Automatic annotation (TrEMBL):
Species per Swiss-Prot/TrEMBL record: Rhodobacter viridis
UniProt xrefs under InterPro entries: Chaperone_Skp, Skp_dom_sf
Domain of life: Bacteria
A GO molecular-function descriptor: unfolded protein binding
Stated name of the protein: Periplasmic chaperone for outer membrane proteins Skp
A Pfam cross-reference name: OmpH
Length: 214
């Protein structure tokens, strides 16, 4: 009877104790793993998932690209030229005013008033013209910046697609974030490679009188 029970324990289907089956399976798995060589050139899966939200420092992008640097240089050059023109005009007006004051004793009150009113009117017109030039220069600069950022849009989309991200946020609005999410340098290199220094600058229209509004 004991032999029959032993035979049933060993041969009977489905009655092998669970722990014994588990031990046998673990042993087989260990043998299989030990026999499987690990290749040194086997690719390693990335340890971190793609970053869905990226950040961009727009001002640094402008400052670090060839196009942005060219716009800034143009603005500095034109501003310096306008400032020099304003200084020259102011010196001329001061000299003219002094001359009028020096001649006052030789003029009748009516004649002096006529010349003084004409001088004031002309000086006011010159100041208005120079102010308009400054405003036009500022508008030109802002338009160039807007064109720069508009041109960065399609290239930004390329980076979004390549990074498997869904949006780009202004870095100034982010309280805390990983450096891996910042695409400023990557986008700057892409813009330099694709767009260079940007479109050719439109040359300013020369002053027909050649006197800066005088």
């Amino acid at each position: 009877m004991l032999r029959g029970l032993a035979r049933m324990t060993i041969q009977g289907p489905g009655i092998l104790p669970g722990l014994l089956r588990l031990g046998l399976c673990a042993g087989v798995l260990a043998v299989c793993l030990a026999g499987a060589p690990v290749r040194a050139d086997q690719p390693v899966a990335p340890t971190a998932p793609p970053v869905p939200v990226l950040s961009l420092d727009f001002e640094r992008l402008f400052d670090d690209t060839l196009w942005g640097k060219r716009i800034a240089a143009d603005m500095a050059r034109d501003s310096a030229a306008l400032n020099a023109e304003n200084t020259r005009i102011a010196d001329d007006l001061i000299a003219e005013e002094k001359s009028l004051t020096d001649r006052r004793a030789k003029l009748t009150p009516a004649a002096f008033r006529t010349e003084a009113d004409a001088f004031d009117e002309r000086a006011t017109g010159i100041r208005a013209a120079q102010k308009a030039k400054a405003q036009s220069l500022t508008q030109t600069y802002e338009a160039a910046r807007q064109a720069f950022f508009a041109a960065s849009g399609p290239l930004m989309d390329e980076v979004l697609t390549r990074r498997h991200a869904v949006m780009v946020l202004d870095r100034r609005a982010i309280i805390r974030g990983l450096e891996a999410a910042d695409i400023t340098e990557e986008l700057a290199r892409l813009m330099d490679a694709r767009l260079g220094a940007g479109p050719a600058e439109a040359q300013p229209t020369p002053d027909p009188a050649g006197n800066g509004g005088e």
